[in-house]
Amino acid sequence: MIEIPHWMSRTNLLLDNHQMQKLINANVLVVGLGGVGGICAEMIARAGVGKMTIVDADVVEASNRNRQIPALISTDNQPKAEVMAQRLRDINPDIDLTVINEYIKDERTEEILNEGNFDYAVDCIDTLSPKVFFIQTCLEKGIPLVSSMGAGGRLDPSKVRISDISASYNCTLARYVRKRLKKFGIRKGLKVVFSSELPDANKVILAPEGGPKKSLIGTVSWMPAIFGCTVASVVIRDLYNKA
């Protein structure tokens, strides 16, 4: 049995030694380290998960500072994955951390999932095609998965929900994901975090040409963080309750 480090002592007051051991021995993949994924990865590490792989190809931009954990003046133009890696290692110096500073899709997604032996995967991807491919591949491989839907355009934390994808509503991203997954015969069996709050359509603008996104939507500091913490809670509770 692995000794539980002192920095986890407050968590250990809440969770018993057996549950803590499950977290310390767990291996979690987080793809996407923006407003939702960054805080999600940090909460998973702070809970004591001993092995993680984090994936993101973006660099920190000034416009990220209103909501993203990696985003500071001092980290402008630095890779988000590397910034998050420094944070996670500063929280838990013993963490077994793999850092992938790439935009993953198709064969690369398959390769990472095949090699990782993950106990849980987290989808915080905000571009539709790679998001759906990642979800589909995880489900086909039987990897436990939770997926974040759209946090943008929302203000009310009380509207954040955890449900199966089939029960999500009032979320454009969830609707597009459901539609794409249906083509592969997938209608349920995906755990998601979404908001039932209707976003204001007037808060959406067209994205600059040449980028991966077609539009940009207004965001506020707390909503992506609440999504990220909620997603992390799904992962952590599923891991320590695992038989």
TrEMBL record:
Family matches, as SUPFAM superfamilies: Activating enzymes of the ubiquitin-like proteins (SSF69572)
Domain (THIF-type NAD/FAD binding fold) ranges: 15-239
Cited CDD domains: YgdL_like (cd00755)
GO molecular function terms attached to this record: tRNA threonylcarbamoyladenosine dehydratase; ubiquitin-like modifier activating enzyme activity
Gene Ontology terms: biological process: cyclic threonylcarbamoyladenosine biosynthetic process
InterPro entries recorded: ThiF/MoeB/HesA, ThiF_NAD_FAD-bd, Ubiquitin-activating_enz
Xref: PANTHER family: TRNA THREONYLCARBAMOYLADENOSINE DEHYDRATASE
Protein name: tRNA threonylcarbamoyladenosine dehydratase
Lineage: Bacteria, Pseudomonadati, Bacteroidota, Sphingobacteriia, Sphingobacteriales
